[in-house]
Amino acid sequence: MKSTPEIKLDQVFQAVNAGIIVIDSQDAVRYCNPVAAILIGLDLKDILGKKIIDVIPNTKLNRVVRDGEANSDQLFIGEQMLITSRSPINLDGVTVGAVAVFQDGSQLQSLLSRLDTTQNSLTSLESIFEQAYDGVMVVDSKGIITRLTKSYCRFLNIEQKDAIGQYCTDVLPNSRMHIVVQTGEAEIGEVMDINGKEAMVMRLPLREEGKIIGAVGKVMFRDVRDLRTLAEKLDLLENKLKFYEKELKHYQKFRYTFSNIVGQSPAILRTKDLAEKAAQGKSTVLLRGESGTGKELFAHAIHAASTRHDQPFVRVNCGAIPTELLEAELFGYEEGAFTGAKKGGKPGKFELAHRGTIFLDEIGDLPVAMQAKVLRILQEKEVERVGSNRLQQLDIRVIAATHRNLEKMIREGEFRRDLYYRLNVFTVTIPPLREREGDVLLLCEHLLTKFQRELGLSLRELDRWVVELFKLYAWPGNVRELQNALERAINVAEGGIILLKDLPLYLQDLEGRRGSTALQPLALELAEAERKAILKALKTTGGNKTNASELLGIHRTNLYRKMEKYGLAGADREGLV
């Protein structure tokens, strides 16, 4: 049988994963293992035989030789922290040397740091657990209570120290915590009698690596009546939410389509055809035309016929919003952006139009300072709320409208040229009512039916002299003026027919005089004859007003006045002659 080889002490010291250094009574190093040399940062030949203070300047090992007492602490060699334990070497009661054992302390330091963090987290969790308003109970796998919040103890009228360690049913007779531990099935929303009150509770099993180690129970509502009150509040909030959603959809939904644009004149049919083509594209649309021609109606119809018809349609009247509020309304703002800013901030019109269409009505009234910001949004398709530094990407289509002469405004420095080019991509010019031959009577029929339905009045029709007047009048206010005149007339008319006397006074006197109260039928016949004669003369002379006035036998100034009166001021330019 082979004998076990003898293991020498030096072999043991060299195998130990710790530094070992020994000094004699004269503080000279007598032994140093390789690990100690590495930790000290010197070769063994530079350590052995040297004074310990020359090897480790901040050592305390020499004190152990003098005092004969062991000690331990941290030792820093450069930036390296070592954990050191020192002991004296005694022989026949006399200290003849000392030994130090040390090792790298970085791992221990990391462990202590993690332990400290864990302790802090545990303390925080304990605090949160104890301060929980509703009752919480935790049991182990045997149904023994391991934790119980103070609020639950007060609710049960029991001391915390008396409850912990007890079986759950001994503290709460009708408890089912032990059953949840056995079945592993959660019980949520259960009604339970606690001290004579109906409370709603939940019980959940606790698992670790697939094994049930306990259960936690929580009182959701101490009194079921609180739940009923909450349910009523939620029901009220839900009804409000439905109402606001309905209002929002109404606010953002288009109201008109191309079928709502009444007229059969070539001018309006051409315009509708062009607008329908614009609806199929993605480009910015600029609606131009005099006030009252129906630019907003066209904007609604274009959105309704576009691929974005099921997305928001947001309307902005650039001339109706005060200048100081315009930026916040268009771009929105963050909470605290200015005095009076709503809590949580507010999205702007551009933000609300995301994925849909924004209609910028009266774009010509937009202040010059604001035009640059609107231009940036149109170019970059991104918006930044007031008081924010975060850009939000937008997917919007822009429809703008104006009755103003933008070209003239550009020359006078009132409108930015670059914004004009950005808007003037697909222009649709809506003709005035005086150019829509035959549409006045169609519009009258449509509007009368609308007013009769809305106002609940009996059928009204137009007297033949009213019809002649409407055909003769130039309607400078266009469809809006016609609508206002008819609404006024249908309210004051006494019979089933709207007479001349039911119209606004300014319509009863084409000359604009308020002296007479009624326009005589003969005057209408004469006025219509005069209008036709002027048109014929202009056609004969190719639009030359001087020759036309000579042909009619009137002064040229008188011809201009009559052309203005009958809405023929631009007849030569508009292709009527």
Q: How is the topology of this model organized?
A:
Elements: H1 9-15, E1 19-24, E2 29-32, H2 34-40, H3 52-55, H4 61-67, E3 71-77, E4 80-91, E5 94-104, H5 106-131, E6 136-140, E7 145-148, H6 150-156, H7 160-163, H8 168-171, H9 177-183, E8 187-194, E9 197-208, E10 211-221, H10 224-252, H11 266-280, E11 285-288, H12 295-304, E12 313-317, H13 323-331, E13 332-333, E14 346-347, H14 349-352, E15 357-361, H15 368-380, E16 382-384, E17 391-393, E18 397-402, H16 406-411, H17 417-423, E19 426-429, H18 439-455, E20 461-462, H19 464-472, H20 478-492, E21 497-498, H21 505-508, H22 521-540, H23 545-552, H24 556-565
Parallel strand pairs: 11-18, 11-19, 12-15, 15-18, 20-21
Antiparallel strand pairs: 1-2, 1-5, 3-4, 4-5, 6-7, 6-10, 8-9, 9-10, 13-14, 16-17
Account of the protein in words:
- The strands form six sheets. This protein has a five-stranded antiparallel beta sheet. It has a five-stranded antiparallel beta sheet with strand order 7-6-10-9-8.
- β6 and β7 form a beta hairpin.
- The termini are far apart.
- The chain has four domains: 9-106, PAS domain (Beta-Lactamase, 2-Layer Sandwich); 125-221, Beta-Lactamase; 258-431, 3-Layer(aba) Sandwich (Rossmann fold); 451-565, Orthogonal Bundle (Helicase, Ruva Protein, domain 3).
- The protein is of the alpha/beta class and 577 residues long.
- The radius of gyration is 47 Å and the shape is elongated.
- The chain is 43% helix and 20% strand.
- It is built from 24 helices and 21 strands.
- Mean pLDDT is 82; it is low at 511-519.
